[in-house]
Design a protein that fits this description.
The chain contains eleven helices and twelve strands. The chain is α+β, with helices and mostly antiparallel strands and about 375 residues long. It has a seven-stranded mixed beta sheet with strand order 1-2-3-5-6-9-12. Strand 10 and strand 11 form a beta hairpin. Helix 5 packs antiparallel against helix 8. It is elongated and about 85 Å long. The chain starts with a helix and ends in a 7-residue tail after the last helix. About 25% of the residues are buried. The model has no long low-confidence stretch (mean pLDDT about 90).
């Protein structure tokens, strides 16, 4: 069975409520105005792509990484952007979404095309692209994942302690109030709360206010509720394929039959996961809320995004040297100024064993 056919079979198991592969993708509206935050995020993404590009090319003797993803320095509001954006949309419907990077064996690398084929029309390089052994979509995240996880563990421990202490305060200090027939259900609720059930517990804070004791009791219930809310927040950093991108990635795989991967770059580590594994994970509803969540991403025009626990993937680089960053001034039409951050340099120290494992390469080949 070809790689494409394996992916095709997996798409049949993905719930249509999440991704309906039988429907065409929703048309995208052309952005009308860029922001400083948008450009900074784009610069960070370009840096992450360059980081992976340089890391693989510097360490591999038999493989070459080439820039492939559609990109341009134009931003919404500049002359030529509308044409670029519409051409990009047409390409999505024709061949799917180009991954940022392609990996070729050296004997298949075309030196005359060089290390950047992102601006070459797709119909002139179709057969060349089909020779790639992998396509990599690079995502970036402005976090240090180790420090984030340490902070989340501390947060969970703190609010678990608050929740259990508050439960005990209510049960030991307000028995008389809770023993009233209209409030006895709260005793059952409180007795069901344990360290294990905090992650799934939910209740409505009572609206008691007729006596000082009931007001005090209500405050304790609110403290308990707020602590439980903190515990139930997502506590992992994620690899983040947008739902709308799942379809166009599948379209690209259908066109070229090349294995596809997501690499998530943090400022201290890099994690990778195959598109095949992504489909497998989201096909199992039992994984939702544990390994992945589905959220509207406020940082990306509220687009629905699948957020997969990074630790479900492989650590591709166990250490990253941070880049140099500097501020840039950009003048737009009508004298509007944008100030954003650009990133240069940095090094990703690849875990070669994990890299070749995820890509399915023999160590002797690499």
């Amino acid at each position: 069975m070809t790689y494409y056919n394996r992916i095709k079979e997996l798409t049949k198991a993905v719930p249509t409520a999440l991704v309906d592969f039988g429907l065409p993708r929703d048309p995208a509206r052309t952005p009308t105005q860029a922001s400083s935050n948008f450009i900074t995020n784009r610069e960070q993404g370009d840096w992450a792509e360059s980081l992976v590009f340089r890391a693989i090319n510097e360490i591999s003797k038999k493989f070459v990484t080439v820039k492939y993803g559609k990109s341009d320095d134009l931003v919404a509001g500049e002359d030529g952007f509308d044409t670029f954006y519409q051409d990009f949309q047409e390409e999505l419907d024709t061949i799917g979404k180009r991954p940022d990077l392609l990996i070729f064996r050296k004997e298949d690398f075309q030196k005359d095309l060089g290390f950047d084929i992102s601006q070459i029309p797709h119909d002139t390089i179709t057969e060349y692209v089909k020779k790639a052994i992998a396509g990599i979509e690079v995502r970036s995240s402005a976090f240090l994942i180790d420090k984030y996880e340490e902070a989340m563990q501390t947060r969970t421990e703190k609010f678990s302690r608050i929740a259990l202490q508050t439960r005990d305060i209510i049960l030991s200090g307000f028995q008389e109030e809770l023993n009233h027939p209209t409030r006895q259900a709260y005793i059952d609720l409180l007795q069901s709360i344990t360290l294990k059930t905090l992650s799934v517990t939910d209740f409505r804070v009572p609206n008691w206010s007729s006596t000082e004791r009931l007001l005090e009791l209500k405050k304790h219930f609110r403290t308990l509720k707020n602590a439980i809310k903190e515990i139930q927040k997502r506590d992992y950093l994620s690899i983040t394929p947008k739902v709308e991108d799942i379809k166009v990635v599948y379209k690209w795989i259908e066109t070229f039959n090349v294995p596809h991967f997501y690499f998530q770059v943090f400022f201290d580590k890099v994690y990778g996961i195959s598109f095949e594994q992504i489909l497998s994970l989201i096909s199992d509803s039992n994984n939702e809320g544990i390994i992945f969540s589905v959220e509207s991403d406020t940082k990306n025009q509220n687009k629905t995004t699948i957020k997969i626990n990074s630790k479900s993937g492989m650590p591709i680089a166990s250490k990253v040297d941070e880049p140099i960053h500097e501020s840039v001034r950009k003048e737009m039409d009508r004298g509007r100024l944008l100030f954003y951050v650009t990133f240069k340099g940095g090094t990703a120290y690849l875990d070669v064993d994990n890299l070749i494992n995820i890509l399915g390469i023999d160590i002797k080949e690499f």
